[in-house]
Amino acid sequence: MPLNGPFIIGANHVHLVDPILLQLSFPRWINFMAKRELFRYPFLRVVIRWTQAVSIHRQGTIKDKKETVKQAKDILSRGLVLGMFPEGTRNRNGKLLPGKPGSAVIALQAGVPVLPVGIIGTEKLKGVSWLWKRPSIVINFGQPFKPPSVEGRLTRTQTKLLTDLIMSKIAALLPPENRGVYGD
């Protein structure tokens, strides 16, 4: 795992506890991207602001998306770690969903590597029975990789290919039954 310099952690997302487990298992502070809706809840808002998470408006305008990219690039320009869940939402059944282009775009524009992470077992955290059943949870860290550079303006096809590359590297860290649309 890189212990210095800026990079993006790209992980699958199954449960609300995923960012906490990821933070506890990683030696550096992770600045996560968090959907704007989470800031509505007073307690969560305090916690999320304390963690220095970046608020993102998932259904926002182009201006909102540019502001999100600007905030992410600012974090990375300071040599920090940016945590992202490229699926853009939780996949409650543990199977990967198609990736969204945000991680790919930010990685390319900031010129930073991506560290793929596969979180296994949090789909078993349902109800309160997990407190005494204690399911096994594994966090697999892959090899960091730098996205291939792109000449000129980034096209939709290039963005899709890079997003799929990030997602396939996350899928490789998961058991076959959790790879979802990246199972092949």
Brief summary:
This protein is an alpha/beta fold and 184 residues long. It has a single domain, classed as Glycerol-3-phosphate (1)-acyltransferase. The chain contains 6 helices and 6 strands; from the N terminus they run βαβαβαβαβαβα.
Describe this structure in words.
The protein is of the alpha/beta class. It has a single domain, classed as Glycerol-3-phosphate (1)-acyltransferase (3-Layer(aba) Sandwich), CATH 3.40.1130. The chain contains 6 helices and 6 strands. A 6-stranded mixed sheet has the order 3-2-4-1-5-6, sandwiched between helices. Strand 2 (30-35), helix 2 (42-50) and strand 3 (54-56) form a beta-alpha-beta unit. Helix 3 (62-77) packs across helix 4 and helix 4 crosses helix 6 (156-171). The radius of gyration is 16 Å and the shape is globular.
Key phrases:
184 residues; alpha/beta
